[in-house]
Amino acid sequence: MKPTPYKNDMLMAQKQQELLERQEAERAAFFQKMKDKQQKMLAAYEAGVGNEMERKQREDEDRARKYQMLAEEKDA
């Protein structure tokens, strides 16, 4: 028995809908992966910047203590 044009249209519409749903799922997964990657890179950058700022803060404090000690030795 040969499919009628109506059944053929329904089958084609169903296949088209499945294709669109699959494409939308792939698109959503792609963008989620991109967002996750960007978030990971941002976290790594922020951690690096935080570590660098902490290191500079320690260096500044050490420099200030050394300067203070030299100033006290000159006054003594």
UniProtKB/TrEMBL annotation:
Region annotated Disordered, chain positions: 52-76
Coiled coil: 8-40
Superkingdom of this protein's organism: Eukaryota
Keyword entries, A-Z: Coiled coil
Protein name per Swiss-Prot or TrEMBL: Uncharacterized protein
Organism of origin: Symbiodinium microadriaticum
